[in-house]
Specification:
- This protein has two helices and four strands.
- By secondary structure, it is of the alpha+beta class.
- A hairpin with an 8-residue loop joins strand 3 and strand 4.
- The radius of gyration is 12 Å and the shape is globular.
- The protein starts with 8 loop residues before the first strand and ends in an 8-residue tail after the last strand.
Length: about 80
């Protein structure tokens, strides 16, 4: 189930979050780890920044953002919780 909608403002996880979670990227056949593994190093330049969701893919629960002109696919877990 999608947490975010087109037009929502989100904050991308911090570089520290990335550094802590990328070590989980061991087994590419584990779907939970695959999600973390898809946060590629090129995406870290956006860590901690605010972005706007421009596209939502309900088939695989991913998002496109304005900050990278839609270059990467982002999972909701890559965004800081607003709670």
């Amino acid at each position: 189930m999608l947490e975010y909608n087109i037009g929502d403002s989100i904050t991308i996880q911090t570089k520290e979050w990335y550094d802590q979670h990328i070590i989980e990227c061991v087994d590419l056949y584990n779907p939970l780890e695959l999600e973390i593994c898809s946060f590629v190093v090129q995406m870290t330049s956006y860590c901690g920044q605010i972005a706007i969701i421009t596209f939502v893919d309900i088939a695989d629960d991913t998002y496109k953002l304005d900050i990278d002109n839609g270059e990467f696919w982002w999972f909701g877990s890559f965004f800081q919780s607003s709670l």
